[in-house]
Amino acid sequence: MSFRRLLMVDGTGYLYRSFFGIKGLSTQDGKPTNAVFGFIRAIRQFQQVWKPTHFVVAWDGGTPVERLERLPTYKSQRPPMPDALREQIAPIMDYLERAAVTVIRLERQEADDVLASLAMWATSDGADEILIASSDKDLFQLVDDHVSLITASRDEPKMGREAVRAKTGVYPDQIVDWLALTGDTADNIPGVEGLGPKTAARLLGQFGSLDSLWERLAEVESERIRSRLGASRALVENNVRLIRLRRDLGCSPGWDALAVQPESPAKLRPFYERLELHSLLKGLEQPDLF
Fold it and tell me: Which terminus in the chain has less CB density within 10 A, N or C?
């Protein structure tokens, strides 16, 4: 069996990252192209730097009902998508089709859960290496001997188990418990009052897991922290169910569908010309442009 390196991209995350990271790019008639350009550049960099054999982009399909039932204010603080960003989604999808990149979007499912489910499938079905392109710390929980997190930068190494611990103070299999204690402002999930990331990491370093922490709560030295933990147990346990990613969505299209395809200048040239993406157009003849 040939070597399989599956690279999975958090499409929604890189859509926003591209939009806010690049300013003032548009066609002569005023159509914004900053997100399109940034997204395509990232996709090409992923392929050139990491050389995957298989490739997929996952998109948010809406908020799962079960998370909203557990926390009605889940992600409610996020502003609506800017119109200038929304109108660039269709061109990006057009690009992905022309580039023969598989896209997965499930109605009322978040991209993180799609990525988690794909990682579970790929691990069980013989993947040699799984790379996830995202800056979302929720995905730290997926990192293991087969799964690493990456960015589009040539200078940043893969984030494995030890890198997750260096960044957060806990190992990947403790990330759900760690976030459940601290909360997650990005998702509007409240944590234990006054309990920061370092204290949460120290507690998990001492007790290993939330289950052990609850069983040995009397051993927590600080009376203030011990009291707040006891009062917040129901909140923390609800957070665990909010933060733990689903791995059972059954969304894989199979290895053949995910296999990387050669670039087709005939399909991409008119697209780049229409959106006046001149540097990408030159890149069709200069594949090492980025």
Answer: N
At 204, is the pLDDT very low, low, confident or very high (cuts 50, 70, 90)?
very high
Residue type, 267: K
CATH class of 5-161+246-283: alpha beta
Domain 172-243: homologous superfamily in CATH: 5' to 3' exonuclease, C-terminal subdomain (1.10.150.20)
Q: How is residue 172 annotated by DSSP?
A: G
**What mean pLDDT, rounded, does the chain reach?**
95
- Determine the Cα–Cα distance for residues 15 and 19; give it in Å rounded to an integer: 6
Say if strands 102-105 and 147-150 run parallel, antiparallel, or are unpaired.
Answer: unpaired
Domain boundaries, the chain: 5-161+246-283, 172-243
Residue 2: CA count within 13 A, CB half-sphere: 9
pLDDT digits (tens, 9 = 90+) for 83-138: 999 999 999 999 999 999 999 999 999 999 999 999 999 999 999 999 999 989 99
Percentage of the chain modeled with pLDDT above 90: 93
Does this chain's domain 5-161+246-283 share its CATH topology with 172-243? Answer: no
